[in-house]
Design goal:
Elements lengths: L17 H12 L4 H10 L10 H13 L3 E7 L7 E6 L1 H16 L7 H7 L6 H31 L8 H26 L4 H31 L1
Antiparallel strand pairs: 1-2
Amino acid sequence: MTYNCSRVIEDKRRLSNPLALAVLVLLYERPMHPYEMACTLRERHKEASIKLNYGSLYTIIEQLQREQFIFPRETLREGKRPEKTVYELTPLGETELINWMRELVSDPVKEFPQFEAALSLIPALPPDEVVELLEIRVNLLKKALEDHGEEGRLCKAMKLPRLFSLEREYHSEMTRAECRFSEQLLAEIKRDVGGLRSTWIELRKNLTRGRQRCGKSRAASGAKEKA
């Protein structure tokens, strides 16, 4: 089987699932079958950074094979167990892997965290309730940071090279930043810094009045239709 290594990589990557990238990296190390890939990712605790389930893994493998990034090297059978197909990285797949990694490391991209989405729509909730919810969030974030600290101590005790826990460091820093932001926002809502709370309350009053007018209008229209 031959592969066209000179094929131009499209600006918009056809495969963007991080699990596909993880498969390419594993096969960059050595040929593997899907079960071995999943076990290796779990042994290295990569499921904390990359969403992993067997159904998605097999779908990703089919897509990578269709793109000619990997190909089946051999099929193994042990006794009465199901056959295991061992996959190998193609030269085209290696090119895709390197380009993809360079892109992810060098190019900041706009992501869409759920908390950010909630903040953009926060007036839907009253400020007093948001204060209570943020207090819950801050406590959970602090607990997560404690867990991160324990994980860090375990890594040091195991003398795990830092190179293999960079994602944990990154996640800890992001969690710490979110905790600081949430604590500051909580304090500023309580103190009405910059009119944050008072503006919010007034906005909700106007919203309530508008909803009431709409309700009365619908009720009047319904009464006319019945008449």
